[in-house]
Design brief:
mainly alpha, three-stranded antiparallel sheet, 6 strands, 56% helix, Superinfection exclusion protein B
C-alpha cells in the first residue's frame, strides 16, 4: 500500500510552509494556495529588496510575504466564491421563475381549451363563483372535478362535506372573457337569424308610439310575439323585471349595450327610440289567444 509522503523541497521552503501546502484538500484551498504562490513569486524580488533596505531580518521575509499573500488570496477567492454563488442563485431563481411562468401559461392554455367543452352544471358553478364565494358540496361531481383541476379553491370547511369555495384568480378573468365572447357570439347569431315574431318584439324599441301590449295602446299583443320576447331574454341578453299595477302584472324589457349596437348597425340602421319597453300583461294575449292576458289578472 502506497503511503503519502510530505513534500521534500530540500530546505528551500520552511517546514511550516510544507505542512500548509501538504494540508490542501479542496478546490477552494487549492485556489487560495495557488494565489499565494503566484503573489509570492511576483512580489518576492521587490519585497525582498524593500525589506532588506529597511533592515528586516531575512529569515522572516518569506514568512511575512507568505502571510500577506495568503490573506490577499483568501479575500480574492472568497469574493469570487460569493460572486459565483450569487450568480448561481440568480440563475436558479430565473429558472424557477421561467418554470412558474411556463406552468402558468400551460394552465391558462388548458383552461381556454377546456371552457367550451364544460357541461352546463360546471358552467353554472363557475358563474356562481364569479359573483362571490359559495358554499358547495365537494361530493358533487362537477365541484370535485373543478377543485381537483385547480379551477376553484377551498377557503374553509363548512359542516359535513361542504366547503366554501372561491374561483381561482387565474381562471376568473379567463372565464369572464369566455362568457363575454360566448354572449357576443350568441347575440350575433340570433340577430343574423331573427324570426318574424322576434323582429316584431324588437320593433317595440324602435316604434313611436308602441302599438300594442300597453294600456296606452289599448291593443293586445299576440302571444307569439310576447313569447318571442321572453326567448330574447336568453339569446339576446335582454334584462327583464316585474311589478304590479292596478292588479295586473307588468314587465319591463331592456336592451343591453352590445345588442343595441348590433341591432342598430345590422337591422334598423338608426338608434332606438327607447332602450326599455314596459308591457302590461292585461294587454298581452294568452297562449290560446283567449284575450285573457298572458298570465291573467293578479
Amino acid at each position: 500500500m502506497r503511503t503519502h509522503k510530505p513534500l521534500n523541497l530540500g530546505g528551500f521552503v520552511p517546514e511550516w510552509a510544507i505542512r500548509f501546502f501538504d494540508s490542501i484538500s479542496s478546490v477552494t484551498s487549492a485556489a487560495r494556495a495557488l494565489g499565494t504562490v503566484l503573489l509570492v513569486l511576483l512580489l518576492w524580488r521587490p519585497a525582498s529588496k524593500l525589506f532588506s533596505n529597511i533592515g528586516f531580518p531575512d529569515d522572516y521575509i518569506i514568512l511575512f510575504l507568505t502571510v500577506g499573500a495568503f490573506s490577499v488570496s483568501y479575500l480574492v477567492v472568497r469574493l469570487l466564491e460569493i460572486g459565483c454563488l450569487k450568480i448561481l442563485s440568480l440563475q436558479n431563481d430565473r429558472k424557477a421563475s421561467l418554470r412558474k411562468e411556463r406552468d402558468l401559461a400551460n394552465f391558462k392554455k388548458k383552461v381556454r381549451m377546456t371552457l367550451p367543452h364544460l357541461n352546463p352544471k360546471e358552467l353554472r358553478v363557475l358563474r356562481e363563483l364569479v359573483e362571490s364565494e359559495q358554499r358547495m358540496d365537494i361530493r358533487e361531481k362537477e365541484v370535485s372535478w373543478l377543485s381537483k383541476s385547480g379551477w376553484i379553491t377551498k377557503i374553509h370547511q363548512a359542516p359535513a362535506a361542504e366547503f366554501f369555495f372561491q374561483l381561482s384568480p387565474v381562471v376568473r378573468p379567463l372565464f369572464i372573457e369566455f362568457e363575454k365572447n360566448r354572449f357576443k357570439g350568441m347575440v350575433n347569431q340570433t340577430i343574423s337569424n331573427l324570426t318574424e315574431p322576434q323582429r316584431n318584439f324588437l320593433e317595440l324599441f324602435w316604434q313611436e308610439p308602441i302599438i300594442h301590449g300597453t294600456r296606452e295602446s289599448q291593443n293586445s299583443m299576440p302571444y307569439k310575439i310576447y313569447h318571442a320576447g321572453l326567448g330574447l331574454v336568453t339569446v339576446l341578453g335582454l334584462s327583464k323585471s316585474e311589478w304590479r299595477e292596478g292588479g295586473h302584472l307588468c314587465e319591463r324589457f331592456a336592451l343591453n349595450n352590445y345588442a343595441k349596437s348590433r341591432l342598430e348597425d345590422e337591422v334598423y340602421g338608426i338608434p332606438p327610440v327607447r332602450i326599455e319597453v314596459d308591457l302590461n300583461l292585461e294587454y298581452v294575449e294568452g297562449p290560446g289567444s283567449s284575450g285573457g292576458g298572458a298570465r291573467g289578472r293578479i
